[in-house]
Specification:
mainly beta, six-stranded mixed sheet, elongated
């Protein structure tokens, strides 16, 4: 989803280089580091140069924010079965439809209540709800199976 840039000011704000949809920062409550650490978002603003600035709860100084510089951060989605997945796990997974690989996962977007996957299906960008009724995810094989074409939009 993105990575942290340099620290801004002395109150713990940090620049965030976003690689996905800007909607995700407006709807996410938390970002997650590779080690699973959750960072609860206090607020997101645009800095003087137009890049995103994020303030996290509990990060109240430049020194605390400095520990995040150059780290990658992700949002997590839940399929509804209780399984959590990070965006980084899902991106580039193969998409399987009717037993054949037809594309790749590009992104996880939406809100916590209504997440969806952005997919590249045979060169066309499509979406599917990120719910257990629509998908089977195989972490080991790095595949997302779409249960029915009816879930693709």
């Amino acid at each position: 989803m993105g990575s942290f840039g340099r620290v801004f000011g002395v109150k713990g704000e940090i620049y965030f280089n976003l690689y996905g949809s800007p909607d995700i920062l407006q709807t996410a409550d938390s970002l997650f580091l590779d080690d699973g650490t959750a960072l609860v978002i206090q607020h997101v603003t645009l800095g003087p140069d137009g890049r995103y600035l994020i303030k996290f709860r509990g990060v109240n100084s430049a020194e605390q924010a400095e520990t995040l510089v150059n780290k990658k951060a992700y949002v997590k989605g839940r399929t509804g079965s209780g399984d959590f997945y990070t965006t980084s796990e899902l991106i580039e997974m193969d998409v399987v439809l009717n037993g054949s690989i037809v594309g790749k996962v590009l992104d996880l977007q939406g809100t916590e209540d209504a997440p969806y996957l952005v997919l590249d299906i045979n060169g066309k960008e499509m979406r599917t709800p990120f719910i257990k009724e629509a998908l089977r995810i195989d972490r080991e094989a790095k595949k997302v199976e779409i249960i029915s074409e009816g879930y693709l939009v």
